[in-house]
C-alpha cells in the first residue's frame, strides 16, 4: 500500500478527516475522534474500523505517532495527498471564486483607493498574511519596456550610495550601491540630473544600451560624466537582475510559536529578511505559464532553512502577462482550502486592482 493509488475510498475519507482535525486543533488525532466525525457524516465507521484503517495508513507512511500513547498526525505525504484531493476530481474545492464572500469582500475592501503597483503589492502581502496566519509574499518584476520616471542618488558613506529608481508603472526600487571609488554628493547630483534630463520616458533596457553607446562616443569632461552615470545606472538596475524583482513580505511574526525548533525558526527569519532568497525560492517553483495555484512541500530541497514549511503561490497577471508572484509561506498545519483560494482570488483580480474598470 505504498502508492497513493492503493489507498481505498474509505481510507481517503478517514485521512481527510484526520488532516482537517489536525489542522483545526494541532493535536494528534485518535480513532474515537474520527469515528464521531465520520458518524456525523452518516458513514457510520466504528472506532475499531477507523483504528484498523489508521494502522494501514501509518504502514503506508501517511500517518505517524509522535508518542506511544498519543493519536496519529499526518505526514508530509498525507498533506500532499490532501491538497491533491482538494484540487482535483469532480468535488474539487480549490477555485478563487469559491472563496467565501466575506473573505472576498475583505480582500476587495483592503485595495479600495490604492494607486500604483507598489501600494498594491505592499497591501497584497499584508492581506495574505492576515488571511492565512502565515507569511504573505508578493514579488513583482518590472515590465519589459517599463519606462523611467525618475532616478535619485544619495551618498551614504564612503563609496556607498543609495539609488532610488522610479518607473512610470509605479514601481519604486531602492538599492545600496558599493562603488569602486568614492563619489561626492555633487557628482551624484550631476549623474542623476543627466539621467533624468536625457532618459525620462525611456525603457530601462534602452537607457542601458544608450549609455554604453555614449561612453564610446563622448570625450573629455562629458565622457567622465557619462561614465559616472553609466556605472551608477548599471549598478542600480543591473542587466542580470532577475527581471528587477521587488519583494514585499509581511507576517513573519505569525510563525513565532508555530515551530518548536527555535534555532530553525531563527534561520527561517534570516531567510525571510534576505529577500533575495525568497525570489530564488519562488522562481525555482512557480512557473509564470501556470494558470493555477501551486502548493510546494519540499522547500528544503532548495532552501534547507525552509524545512517543514509549505509554499502556496500563483503567478500574478497584469494585462494578460505574468508580472510576478503572490503567495503564502507557512507551516504544514495551515488551512489549505482557504489559503489556496485566497491566493488564487488575489492572483485572478490582480490586474483589476491595478487597472479598475473604466480606466
In short:
Helices cover 46% and strands 18% of the residues. It has 359 residues and is of the alpha+beta class.
What does this structure look like?
With 359 residues, the chain is of the alpha+beta class. It has twelve helices and ten strands. Strands 7-3-10-9-8 form a five-stranded antiparallel beta sheet, with helices on both faces. The protein has a three-stranded antiparallel beta sheet with strand order 4-5-6, covered by helices on one side. A hairpin with a 2-residue loop joins β9 and β10.
Number of helices: 12
Q: Give the helix/strand class.
A: alpha+beta
Q: Which CATH-level-2 architecture of the largest domain?
A: 2-Layer Sandwich
Rounded mean pLDDT is: 77
Please name the fourth-level CATH homologous superfamily of the largest domain.
GAF domain
CATH top level assignment of the largest domain: Alpha Beta
Amino acid at each position: 500500500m505504498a502508492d497513493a493509488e492503493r489507498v481505498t475510498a474509505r481510507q481517503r475519507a478517514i485521512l481527510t478527516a484526520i488532516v482537517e482535525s489536525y489542522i483545526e486543533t494541532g493535536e494528534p488525532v485518535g480513532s474515537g475522534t474520527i469515528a464521531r466525525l465520520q458518524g456525523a457524516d452518516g458513514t457510520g465507521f466504528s472506532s475499531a474500523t477507523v483504528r484498523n484503517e489508521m494502522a494501514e495508513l501509518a504502514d503506508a507512511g501517511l500517518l505517524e505517532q509522535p508518542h506511544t500513547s498519543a493519536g496519529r498526525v499526518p505526514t508530509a505525504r498525507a498533506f500532499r495527498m490532501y491538497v491533491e484531493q482538494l484540487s482535483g476530481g469532480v468535488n474539487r474545492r480549490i477555485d478563487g471564486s469559491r472563496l467565501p464572500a466575506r473573505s472576498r469582500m475583505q480582500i476587495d475592501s483592503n485595495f479600495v483607493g490604492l494607486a500604483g503597483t507598489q501600494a498594491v503589492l505592499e497591501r497584497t502581502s499584508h492581506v495574505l498574511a492576515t488571511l492565512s496566519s502565515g507569511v504573505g509574499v508578493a514579488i513583482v518584476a518590472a515590465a519589459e519596456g517599463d519606462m523611467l520616471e525618475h532616478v535619485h542618488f544619495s551618498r551614504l558613506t564612503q563609496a556607498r550610495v543609495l539609488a532610488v529608481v522610479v518607473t512610470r508603472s509605479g514601481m519604486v526600487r531602492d538599492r545600496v550601491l558599493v562603488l569602486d571609488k568614492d563619489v561626492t554628493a555633487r557628482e551624484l547630483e550631476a549623474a542623476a540630473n543627466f539621467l533624468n534630463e536625457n532618459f525620462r520616458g525611456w525603457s530601462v533596457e534602452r537607457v542601458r544600451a544608450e549609455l554604453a553607446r555614449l561612453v564610446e562616443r563622448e570625450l573629455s569632461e562629458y565622457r567622465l560624466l557619462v561614465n559616472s552615470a553609466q556605472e551608477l545606472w548599471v549598478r542600480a538596475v543591473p542587466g542580470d537582475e532577475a527581471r528587477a524583482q521587488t519583494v514585499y513580505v509581511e507576517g513573519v511574526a505569525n510563525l513565532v510559536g508555530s515551530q518548536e525548533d527555535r534555532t530553525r525558526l531563527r534561520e527561517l527569519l534570516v531567510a525571510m529578511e534576505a529577500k533575495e532568497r525568497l525570489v530564488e525560492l519562488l522562481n525555482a517553483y512557480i512557473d509564470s505559464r501556470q494558470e493555477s495555484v501551486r502548493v510546494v512541500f519540499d522547500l528544503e530541497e532548495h532552501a534547507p532553512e525552509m524545512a517543514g514549511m509549505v509554499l502556496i503561490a500563483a503567478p500574478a497577471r497584469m494585462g494578460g502577462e505574468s508580472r510576478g508572484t503572490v503567495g503564502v509561506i507557512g507551516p504544514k498545519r495551515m488551512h489549505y482550502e482557504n489559503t489556496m483560494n485566497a491566493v488564487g482570488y488575489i492572483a485572478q483580480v490582480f490586474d483589476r486592482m491595478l487597472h479598475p474598470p473604466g480606466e
